[in-house]
């Protein structure tokens, strides 16, 4: 027998009652993949066509599987969840191969080689049923495998006698059954008198009683842990994560506090890289060689080039960072940011949907949204792009070698051309031509000795306030506008470009 005469049935219709959540347990994420996709991906790798039984949250589970683009999957709806035996019975019209491989949907640690072994054993022994078992210290929650007088059966925990509960050989929930036997016997299943469900596992006793060959393979528990509760989910997640951490350690990655790190299944990390405490590497994240990802940083669906340092507490999402770049601490990059090589992005910098050329620098307190920055651009501290007018988003373009002074407000759409300078504190509303200096701010005026006058006035006001609370009174010195105030305000006002030019800028 080869895989080619096997069809798989994945049971994914159950209500997940023991999870106590509204969402089906099969939709919970474990290291970047939903639970139901784990057994499905194993079958995909083996090239075995499969039927998935849907029921509780059928649409959501189906959609989840479809987004993974797995070929050769068909679906059957089990309208009422009357047990695993009933779920399999619902799929009868899809039994198009000689052997039917049935597996629970809640087996995220299952591996390809266990299924290969199961198929091989089933073929070698020409068995009617072959299923996986495991010896566990605490068998609570599992069906117990009972072998007595040459007969074998599986008793569900709810149906076990107190003595049977001590049996620590459990049914793993993965069975290979000859189609002929299934066709003759599936309709003979009877509802459990305890739970009212039709148990698939009762087929084992039926086959054994009729002297059919029933084989078992004992496998490591950690590969067949079922997930019925959130606590069990936590358990398998720990195992999955440590598998990835061990894999990357073997490939030359140093983890600062390995047990605190989260890594998803599709993550890649280059040799010589350092992953700090509490780092999350999520989705399709790819970290290059000799990188350092600082403590508590979160990288999701992002690429980091070689020799790049992401300092602690940075959050990077859907972005692409080049080589020899420094990011953070406390930086946030999101929604399609592309950064060239040799770039420095400092603390409290947020960048959204922006492209940044090589050798650019923005080292402090900046927001860049919907911007395009050329090479060797410098962005001063506190500068922001005003990309949103409440209705539309606009682009800011800063060309090669431009120098944006500190605390600039760049009101998009606007372009600062090659080699231009903008003065600190400017509000840039108009395009700045190449190699020009833009000053968009009030000119400073120093009123010699004026501070003392102000102080005297404020002191007088305080005395007056203490005696008279009527701050609107014309007698209140604060309400008397002096000639100097008028002049001060006038000279401090924003001037036109011509006025500045007259003053020699
Ligand atoms: C099942 C086995 C038990 C075994 C354990 C291994 C039965 C009766 N019991 O118990 O012997 O030790 O798995 O993990 O099979 N499902 C449906 N339709 C239903 C009911 C369930 O599709 O009407 C699906 C569930 O979504 C799940 C799978 O079948 O993916 C198994 O159901 P679950 O309730 O988890 O069975 P267990 O009690 O764990
Ligand atoms: Ca289960």
What keywords describe this structure?
single chain; 505 residues; alpha/beta; Spore Coat Polysaccharide Biosynthesis Protein SpsA, Chain A; 16-stranded parallel β-sheet; nine-stranded parallel β-sheet; 39 strands; binds uridine-diphosphate-N-acetylglucosamine; binds calcium ion
Briefly characterize the structure.
The chain is of the alpha/beta class and 505 residues long. It is 22% helix and 28% strand.
What does this entry look like structurally?
The longest helix is centred in the middle third of the chain and has 21 residues, at 230-250. Helix content is 22%, strand content 28%. By secondary structure, it is of the alpha/beta class. Among the domains are: 3-223, Spore Coat Polysaccharide Biosynthesis Protein SpsA, Chain A (Alpha-Beta Complex); 450-502, no CATH class. The radius of gyration is 35 Å and the shape is elongated. Uridine-diphosphate-N-acetylglucosamine is lined by residues 11-14, 53, 55, 78, 81-84, 86-87, 104-106, 142-143, 154, 156, 170-173, 199-201, 226, 228. Calcium ion binds next to loops.
Structural class: alpha/beta
Q: How many strand units?
A: 39
What is the CATH top level name of the domain at 3-223? Alpha Beta
Beginning-to-end CA distance, first to last residue:
88 Å
- As for the CATH topology of the domain at 3-223, it is Spore Coat Polysaccharide Biosynthesis Protein SpsA, Chain A
Q: Could you say which overall geometry the principal axes of the C-alpha atoms support?
A: elongated
Task: Report the radius of gyration as a whole number of Å.
Answer: 35 Å
DSSP summary: helix tally: 11
Task: Give the full name of the CATH homologous superfamily of the domain at 3-223.
Answer: Spore Coat Polysaccharide Biosynthesis Protein SpsA, Chain A
Sheet with the most strands, sense and barrel status: 16 strands, parallel
Tell me, rounded to a whole number, the average pLDDT.
94
Oligomer: single chain
